[in-house]
Amino acid sequence: MCNFADYMVGAQSPPGAPAITSLLHLFSITDNNHDNNINQHSTPMAEKEAEAREAAGRGLNFVEQIVADDLAAGKNGGRLNTRFPPEPNGYLHIGHAKAICMDFGVAEKFGGTCNLRFDDTNPVKEDVEYVDAIREDIHWLGFDWGDREYYASDYFPQLWDLAVRLIKEGKAYVDDQTSEEIAAQKGTPTEPGVESPYRNRSVEENLDLFERMNKGEFEEGARVLRAKIDMASPNMHFRDPIMYRIIKTPHHRTGDTWKVYPMYDFAHGQSDYFEGVTHSICTLEFVVHRPLYEYFVKELADDSYCPRQIEFNRLNLTYTVMSKRKLLQLVKEGLVAGWDDPRMPTISGMRRRGFTPQSIRNFVDRIGYTKYEALNSVALLEHAVREDLNATATRAMAVMDPLKVVITNYPEGQTETVEMENNPEDPTAGTHSMPFSREIYIERDDFMENPPKKFFRLAPGGEVRLKGAYIIKCEEVVKDAEGRITELRCTYDPSTRSGLPGAMRKVKGTLHWVNAPTAVDATVRLYDRLFNVENPAAETDRDFRELLNPDSLKVVDGVKVEPFIAENANPGTRFQFQRVGYFTPDYDSRPGALVFNRTIALKDSWEKEQKKNG
Fold first, then answer.
1. pLDDT tens across 79-103, in order?
2. How many CA atoms lie within 13 A of 80 on its CB side?
3. What is the SS3 string spanning 20-60?
């Protein structure tokens, strides 16, 4: 068993590697700051225990209950330190958001800290672009890691030293077999594996080969370092797992210093230990890895401090794929317009589409954390988005398929303004002015020449209210040579303007509209679900790309928006286009060429359509 301090200072680097720097900075150990000190804590133990007992009385999920119990028992000196450990080989998606909310959220709830650690152990797939995107996504969700940003590569020297120690103790060896030969010798869950012919090499030979692996003397795949555990273990992960492999691709942080890189199972628990992580929270697929996590970490830890791995169910959504490999395939093959395509389940895609951080956090909170895998309906996420946008989005008017209306008895050349409520859910949101004149636009499908019963919008001889303005009556329909309706001629009742006594007159339909002379042209992108089957992962007999929804994006040009929208079309602004849906300006939008993304429709029509088509 090793002392923790041995791996913080004074460890030896492999030949050619930079000197190992002290890890004391990770814990901010000074006379005045003990926030992260693994040997001290920021509040008295009795206070910590009282907080934990109080938390236990509240509604806690099972992970929070474990944390509360550990704090109440005074484990790890009463500290709580979690971590979020993404691989910088792609953009984060909604499944990662669930993990972020857990890792950072439980730390916030119990007064602990959460580290951001990039698991950068495979330089072939990693890129600084992903590092920057991950930082942005976490901050956008409302979490912060302070000065606790770390990298698995920070610990490459310490991991090397541990590997060397295990070789010297006869617990690791260099294997010359191919990956196929190693896999074939692993056995099955009911049959023991076969020992490698290189398993009993001498310590001296293993040390020599391991150093030469790191000097680049051997090709990738020629040799690996394996832990010598038990080839007959019922847990397949204990059958001499690979600890290191040769990779000659330069690393984005360490360059060409290393030619061997640690595997996840070897690096992860030790990185937790080096950082002082107390609770290593991950998803259920790592349950079978936990014994190996504990096996490796106990080569360092003792009774005073040892990280604990806890698993919860990952997030699966209907009409969605979460596989990073498949998402990367969609991007590389041009089937979507990048990682931040608003149809993607990535956090950056959802941000571009207009989802709010609070809606994602509310959704995660509602589906909860359990020990059982589940397929969650994407309708639950969409409901959370609608609910939050209903409370926060600014109301304004846009006409998607404009039909001109001329109000024949309204004075020519006159323009007045009407006051429109910005958000009826928020009395403090105020109002904005909207121009009204003789010519306006309404939606084409808000008029029918021969309407069926219960059609309460505009028809010949019928009346409707223009929201915030007057009641109008259709007097004449103008058509072109092909019989297409090009214009409606209506009259208005001047006494029915909103706020006047005549406004009390009842009509059954209320329409949105925009003033024609001041309307601004815009392009709207109507986004829908990326896949047209409920569970793409279950369609094993078909290529997942065949399951893409051909109607997931429709582009509508010539949309007419009121001036207030054009004047406030700033990045991140969220509008409710009244009676249409929720929209936000796209990154491509600019003055004179406005582009809006539909975040979500006002109502969920998908389920109804699917049942109808089924």
1. 999 999 999 999 999 999 999 999 9
2. 28
3. CCCCHHHHCCCCCCCCCCCCCCCCCHHHHHHHHHHHHCCCC
Instruction: Locate all alpha helices (DSSP H) within 112-189, ordered by sequence.
Output: 128-141, 156-168, 179-185
Residues 6 or more apart in contact with residue 373 via CB below 8 angstroms: 284, 313, 314, 316
- pLDDT for residue 613 is more than 60: no
Beta bridge partners of 577: 396, 581
DSSP assignment of 549-567 equals -TTSEEEEEEEEE-HHHHH
Residue 14 per-residue DSSP state: P
The tens digit of pLDDT for each residue in 246-281 reads 999 999 999 999 999 999 999 999 999 999 999 999
| Total Cβ atoms within 10 A of residue 59 | 7
- Strand-pair partners of 346: 93
Quick one: average pLDDT of 353-357?
A: 98
Question: What spatial distance separates the first Cα and last Cα of the chain, rounded to whole Å?
Answer: 63
For residue 452, the 8-state DSSP code is P
Task: Check pLDDT > 70 for residue 56.
Answer: no
CA–CA separation, 293 and 167 (whole Å): 18
Angle between helix axes 264-275 and 156-168 (nearest 10 degrees) is 110
Mean pLDDT value across the chain: 90
Catalytic annotation on 534? no
186, burial (CB in 10 Å: exposed 0-12, middle 13-18, buried 19+): middle
Sheet holding 581-585, edge to edge: 394-396, 575-577, 581-585, 594-601, 520-527, 553-561, 398-399
Q: Which amino acid is at 389?
A: L
Provide the strand spans (E) within 272-307: 279-283
Write down the catalytic residue from 201, 324, 353, 438: 324
SS3 67: helix
The residue whose two tokens read 């950082």 is 275
- pTM for the whole structure: 0.86
**Ramachandran category for residue 498: left, alpha or beta (phi over 0 → left; psi -120 to 50 → alpha):** beta
Distance of alpha carbon 430 from alpha carbon 84, whole angstroms: 41
- Is 205 an annotated catalytic residue? no
* Catalytic-labelled residue, pool 109, 125, 171, 314: 314
* Phi, psi (degrees; rounded to nearest 5) at 146: 60, -130
Q: Is 87 tagged catalytic?
A: yes
Amino acid in the structure at residue 102: M
Measure Cα distances from 59 to 55, 75, 101, 165, 385 in Å.
8, 22, 17, 45, 24
Ramachandran angles phi, psi of 433, nearest 5°: -90, 145
HEC per residue, 425-439? CCHHHCEEEEEEECE
Q: Give the count of beta carbons closer than 10 Å to the beta carbon of residue 410.
A: 20
Task: List strand residue ranges (DSSP E) for 454-587, in order.
Answer: 463-466, 471-479, 485-493, 510-511, 514-515, 520-527, 553-561, 575-577, 581-585
pLDDT of residue 609: 52
List 49, 87, 211, 487, catalytic entry: 87
